[in-house]
Each structure stands twice: as C-alpha cells, then as structure tokens.
Amino acid sequence: MKNRLRELREQMGWSQAALAEQLDVSRQTVNALETGKYAPSLPLAFRIARLFGETIENIFIDEDA
After folding, report:
1. Which residues pair with 61 in a beta bridge?
2. pLDDT of residue 53
3. What local confidence, expressed as pLDDT, does residue 42 receive?
4. What are the pLDDT digits (tens) for 7-43?
5. Which domains does the chain have, with CATH numbers?
6. Contacts of 64 (CB under 8 A, 6+ apart)
7. Per-residue confidence (pLDDT) for residue 65, from 0 to 100
8. C-alpha atoms less than 13 angstroms from C-alpha of 10 in its C-beta half-sphere
9. Which of 48, 52, 56, 58 lies deepest, with the highest CB count within 10 Å?
10. Measured between alpha carbons, how far is 65 from 48 in angstroms, rounded to an integer?
11. How far is the first Cα of the chain from the last one, in angstroms, to the nearest whole number?
12. Does the pLDDT value for residue 46 go beyond 90?
C-alpha cells in the first residue's frame, strides 16, 4: 500500500525509531509501512493519522480504487 508516511516523518524531523516509539511499534514495522511491504491495521492507521493531524485517506493511498 502506497503512503506518505516517510514524507510526513521526515517533515517532522523524526527517525524511524522515534516514530516507532510514538506509535508503540517496532522500527522494523515503520520501515515495512514506509516501503509498502505492510499495510497497517485499522487501529494503527488511526494512530498514525492522529499523530500527524491528517486523515487516513491523506496518508494511505488505495491503489485499487
């Protein structure tokens, strides 16, 4: 699943580890999300959206739509 997670994280000046800590996930999970190897669970997608003050649709792009 394509997303803007890396772009948003870099705008905030955060490392993958810093973002992972805020989301209560591993750095490897953040990396997998950023590279599109892993689609987030709905609760995780909501946490990410709240953290960045964005809607889920503005962060995650449904390529099948």
Report:
1. 2
2. 98
3. 97
4. 999 999 999 999 999 999 999 999 999 999 999 999 9
5. 2-58 (1.10.260.40)
6. none
7. 64
8. 6
9. 48
10. 21
11. 12
12. yes
Residue 57: the pLDDT is: 95
Annotate 1-65 with DSSP letters as a single string. Answer: -EESHHHHHHHHT--HHHHHHHHTS-HHHHHHHHTTS-PPPHHHHHHHHHHHT--HHHHEE-TT-
- Which residue's entry shows tokens 């995650």? 60
pLDDT score, position 1: 84
Token digits of residue 52: 């960045």
Looking at the DSSP bridge assignments, the partners of residue 3 are 60
The token duo for 4 is 């803007």
How many residues appear in the chain? 65
Tokens, residue 63: 């390529």
Q: Distance (Å, rounded) from C-alpha 21 to C-alpha 23?
A: 5
